[in-house]
Inverse folding.
DNA sequence: GCTTTGACCGTCCACATTGGACGGTCTTGA
DNA sequence: TCAAGACCGTCCAATGTGGACGGTCAAAGC
């Protein structure tokens, strides 16, 4: 028996396999699903999704179904796919990636035209507060529903926590920097 | 007079120009500088830095100095570079990018082997708490120094705020998800 | 009935970003 | 004197982003 190749899938592929556990989805659906559930904390772009789906199909981790309306092609997870997902999960989540131009602005504040940083921070405060309101509204709505996966609520709560922390951070900035 | 090309630099190039406002630096120095000042919130990798430096040199935004020890080549910002930086800053910070495998884990918790998510969260709690302690220690140290740029403290405070929020978030997770 | 709008669905490409392998130079201390 | 390790840069494969492009279908308005 030949040694079975374990393709060592990447996190993007793994996330797709994760979503496919609930049933076949098209690439388009997967993007939408990710957007709805983890939104800002795990971006999936079309290009990436279709590329990984094609690759995974080659490796037998997913199988394309029949083409439906508008060329839509649903992919279903296979047993090999489930195994690959479990293997990925067992390796644990790796380091994340964060790139916040806002923080870059703050750090380089010394070299910005006077007042610019102040303006930017004020705008950000508004944005973050609006985001927080959105999250809170969503939370309210989901609370009134039954059978909502607590994992989704936990993710949403992370968004709430961080948005709130960000607003507070801006509010407590010393006068030389912020207000 | 020919229309002067405004190269429309990207955020990575802009951050390099920002750091160069304080004087010439080598690519290596720039990576270290970014690591020290914005650390986790604005990653700069060697490949990216050397590539952008070469490009910016072509466009006259920076000028290489004389090669020193170990092939080190310091770059100095030019007037055109300062102008390009100011133009970038005037456009404001764009959207950030965040990709947190931990949140992916939480979101997909339903499909993980029982107990795995719990383990992962416990590990993360330890990590984040350690990170928080590091930040707090740094903050302490900087507070005892004179003439520390308040912008750097503000960035550090963001780290503290978020780390603290993350720890609290883990602590308040419902039993089905976390503890 | 006809058309227009816009949601749906995928392909493709240029560019940005990451991580690490590789090769070399100089300093320090065992 | 030599080994380890910090310093410095090049290069490449893999990954990720954003948007242009082209097509299909359903619904709403005329």
């Amino acid at each position: 028996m030949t040694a079975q190749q374990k393709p060592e899938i990447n996190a993007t592929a793994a996330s797709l396999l994760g979503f496919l556990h609930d049933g076949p989805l098209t690439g388009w659906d997967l993007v939408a699903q990710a957007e709805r559930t983890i939104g800002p904390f795990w971006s999936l772009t079309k290009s990436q999704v279709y590329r990984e789906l094609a690759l995974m199909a080659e490796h037998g981790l997913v199988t394309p179904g029949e083409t439906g309306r508008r060329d839509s092609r649903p992919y279903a997870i296979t047993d090999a796919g489930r195994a690959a997902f479990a293997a990925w999960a067992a390796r644990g989540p790796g380091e994340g990636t964060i790139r916040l131009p806002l923080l870059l602005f703050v750090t380089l504040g010394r070299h910005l035209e006077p007042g610019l940083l102040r303006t930017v921070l004020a705008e950000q405060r508004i944005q973050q507060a609006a985001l927080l309101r959105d999250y809170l509204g969503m939370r309210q709505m989901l609370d009134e529903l039954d059978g909502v996966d607590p994992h989704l609520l936990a993710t949403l709560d992370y968004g709430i926590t961080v948005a709130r922390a960000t607003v507070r951070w801006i509010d407590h900035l010393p006068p030389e920097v912020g207000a």
